[in-house]
Amino acid sequence: MNILILGGDGYLGWPTAMHLSAQGHSVAVVDNYFRRKACDELQSPPLLPVPDLGERTRLWQAASNHTVHCAEGDLCVWEFMQDCFTGKAFGLDWTPDAVVHYAEQPSAPYSMMDRDKAAFTLSNNLMSTMNLVQAVKEFNPACHIVKLGTMGVYGTPDIDIEEGYLDVDYKGRSHRFLYPKTPGSLYHLTKAQDGDMLYFYCRIWDIRVTDLNQGPVYGIFTDQSDDEQLATIFNYDDVFGTVVNRFLVQAVAGIPLTVYGKGGQTRGYLDLRDTLACVELAILNPAQAGEYKVYNQITETFTVNELAELILEGGKQAGIDVTVKNIENPRREAEEHYYNPTYTGLKDLGLEPHLLTSDKVARMLEFVARHKGRIREDAIMPKVKWT
Ligand code: USQ
């Protein structure tokens, strides 16, 4: 298949590009380097230095003999989106059969930082999605859009969370609605809005969409990135680092794990390798014309306190002394709540999860410890408050 990856330089994008290319697909990636520029601006470099896309694709070609095409550009600019769909951006005669859409501002704290960052998050996330739909309609209406969504669109309702839809019986009649959305940051709100937009265009233009409502991802290793130069962007700062990755670095740096508030916040988590497997499964099992498929892309749930406990256990195995400190929660979120999401769809398609164990934590800690000298301690404490 011809697969276009929007946001192909990011934490998930680059590992996805290598994974799909290793399966023999023709892969092209585009990115505007937002994440790199924001990390520079916030003085929060990733743990490992990351070569640019041109260099990454050259290194990948040398390691695997597979070619990944790449281009730099802004997908909110319609002409650039058009060039990606005609292949002009890559010097190819090419139209994608599937598009993986990661090209959104992915950080909740970033979206809550100030007006400009809120405005950027809103316009970037919605305009890139709208341009994508327009390009699919114009260049290949059969093209399957696989959009990365988030479990955060559901919030933490006091009833079970279904996989995308809710059947409502009301006054003797029944209807199937998208599951109600109660996002907890402006970023999460944009992911609710882009989902609504895609569902709308499925109904109106019969496009094909799969929305992957993913939980926080952790990890650094994938089958393709043993070479550290091919490794993903691994952030541990308060804006772009997800909680497990942050805790791994805090443990190695000797900083008490920053549990926000009471630590009873429960989320669904998954290993980076499982993200790649899920995206591949979604591509191989496309939505029908007019169908908006939704999967909950998580493999297990934890409270923040349970995660901290696992890092403590892994630390013991790795010979690292880990401590934990509950600090004031910079976010507005429930710290003790009911949480029971369904996540059977991807397992039914064949997903075999890599679960989070203390052994795995110990291996990741050992990896981070080899790069301890690069940890910027000033990037760790949370600086963005929701209120
Ligand atoms: N948390 C801590 N201490 C920390 C960092 C986070 O207690 O040092 C807590 C947060 O308050 C939250 C939970 O850990 O309750 C998860 O936080 P996170 O920063 O790992 O995840 P989040 O901000 O929700 O966003 C991340 C990704 C985002 C993705 C989302 C999936 O950045 O792109 O959409 O995970 S979900 O959380 O299911 O919405």
From TrEMBL:
Q: Which residues form a coiled coil?
A: none
Cited InterPro entries: Epimerase_deHydtase, NAD(P)-bd_dom_sf
Q: Which residues form the NAD-dependent epimerase/dehydratase domain?
A: 3-296
Entry's family note: Belongs to the NAD(P)-dependent epimerase/dehydratase family.
What is this protein's name? Answer: NAD-dependent epimerase/dehydratase
Ranked from the top, the taxonomy reads: Bacteria, Pseudomonadati, Thermodesulfobacteriota, Desulfovibrionia, Desulfovibrionales
